[in-house]
Amino acid sequence: MEKNLKREEFLLRINGLANGTHCVSIKCDKTFFDIAQMEELHDGDLDLQITMEIQDKNVQIRFDFKGYVVAACDRCLDDVRVPMDFSEHLVVKLVENPAAFENQEDDNLWIIGEKEPMIDIFHFVYESILLAMPMRIVHPDDENGNSTCNPEILGKLNELKAKDDDIDPRWSALKDLIPNE
Predict the structure, then answer these.
(1) How confident is the model at residue 137 (pLDDT cuts 50, 70, 90)?
(2) With 0-12 CB in 10 A as exposed, 13-18 as middle and 19+ as buried, what is 131?
């Protein structure tokens, strides 16, 4: 039941709202990530502020995300909190015949029927979160510049690291192509 209520929070009513600014706040928490079934993210605490600017048949929507998500560290695979603070935009156009615009390919422009009462922003929100993730997720270093990753895993990685003298001679010539910095 809790998942159904969380899912319904992402249905925004747009039809019948007066022109002007309308605001909504949603919490993206563990329930949100469970519903989304994101393999990359399995927990978090994001405050999502949604501001809708309605002007006749155009709706400008601004999404402001602030908080953190929990993902696996790329180095040690332990959980790490990744801070998030970003914005995203979406434009919704209400038209009489949305089928005439079906070849439109802008992800941030939705064209829907003018009689549609609501829009479902759930997938837009979780895709925005995924796209805002850093390319490499690792535990931050401590104040001395040392990794705060799982020391047991770091030890194993150091054991398995290839030694310079273990390089196949056919590949060693390629090493000379990389400029030393």
Answers:
(1) very high
(2) exposed
Sheet holding 41-55, edge to edge: 20-28, 41-55, 58-72, 79-95, 109-113
The position carrying tokens 């796209």 is 131
Pairing mode, if any, of strands 41-55 and 20-28? Answer: antiparallel
3-state secondary structure of 26: strand
Give the CA distances from residue 102 to residues 3, 52, 106, in Å, rounded to whole numbers and listed in that order.
31, 24, 11
Cα(163)–Cα(17) distance, rounded to whole angstroms?
A: 66
Contact by Cβ (8 Å): 32, 121: no
- For residue 155, give the amino acid letter: G
Q: What is the pLDDT of residues 85-106, one digit of tens each?
A: 999 999 999 888 877 777 777 8
Confidence tier at 7 by pLDDT (50, 70, 90): confident
Spatial neighbors of 120 by CB under 8 A, at least 6 apart, are 10, 11, 12
How does residue 38 score in pLDDT terms, banded at 50, 70 and 90? Answer: confident
Cβ-Cβ contacts under 8 Å for 109 (sequence gap 6 or more): 90, 91, 92, 93
d(CA 45, CA 86) in angstroms, rounded, equals 14
